[in-house]
Each structure stands twice: as structure tokens, then as C-alpha cells.
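Hi R.,

Here's the chain you asked about this morning:
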Amino acid sequence: MDKPKKETKITRRSVLRDGVRSFFVLSMGGASGYLVSRVQAEDYVWQIDPHKCISCGNCASHCVLEESASKCVQSYPMCGYCKLCTGFFNAAPSALDTGAENQLCPTGAIIRTFVEDPYFDYTIDESLCIGCAKCVKWCEAFGNASLYLQVRHDRCLNCNECSIALACPADAFVRVPKSKPYRLKIENKPE
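And here is the predicted structure, written out as C-alpha cells:
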């Protein structure tokens, strides 16, 4: 003899109880996913891959900051300390001196210092650099490519969708681990 099946009665209380349980489970899953994504986002920062950068100038004009977080840096081991530095002088300088009319940088952010004949040292005043990459382009074309752009993390807001990354035609803006936030040109040479 078959045992009669127990009828399941749906009551308001059971619907409410199941609804609260479902809401709680979904909330916990959503909160966990949000926390995981926040932790992952905080573990990475934006940086420019100097081997992909084409010196287009978008870093100067597309950053959400008034003054771009991208700045020119100098790799001293790569620099030739040239008397005629193509990253410092414009295409047709009237003289090889520090006259503003001879300089390529629109803000005078590159400081030229005499070392010994015929060598000169070139340093970047980052407070003046606007990240236009003019010096990077000409140093890459005719020099040792020791000048390149890097995101300065003391300035960068680390936006989830970086405006410069969206505008970068070479996909040179990449996420890198926060523990190693810079892509030094000499260390990361492609093979």
C-alpha cells in the first residue's frame, strides 16, 4: 500500500522566507564579487610600455588631470650625452646653446648641463613636463632612445577606464602590478 504524499502548501510565510533567503544569498554573492574586483583593480596600475609607445602626444591632451600624469624620463645608461641631442634641440637650431628658440621642448622641461667636452647631461624637470613626447619622438628617431614616457603614480588617479589608454593608438597603456609600477626601458627590452 502506497503511503499518501504529503501535500506541500504554499503560504505567504514560506514565500517570504524563501524570498529573504534568496535575497541574502544573492547579496552575499554580489558583495563578494564586488570586493574581489576591487582588490584586483587595486593590485594593478596604469603604465606606458615604452617599447610600444609611438610618441603620438595623446598623453598630454587626454589625461583627466589638467597636467598629465605622463612625464618624460631619462634612461642615463642609454643616453649618449650628445652635444647635439635631438631630444633637446629643434630640427634647425640657430646655435647649440640653451636659447629657447633652439629647444624642442615647448615648456623648457629639459635641462642641459655641460659635463666635459663634448658631453652634456640632460635631465627632466617634471614640474614643467606636459607629456607631449616631442623629445621622445626625436630621441627615438635620431638618438639612443633614452628619453621615454612613464606614468607618475604620485599624480595618476588610476582611473578604471583611463582616458589616455582609450585614446592610445598603439595600445601602449597597459596594466602592471602595483608592486612593479614602472616599465624601465632598459629592463624590459622585448626579445
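One quick note: The helical segments are 12-42, 58-62, 134-142, 163-167.

Cheers,
M.
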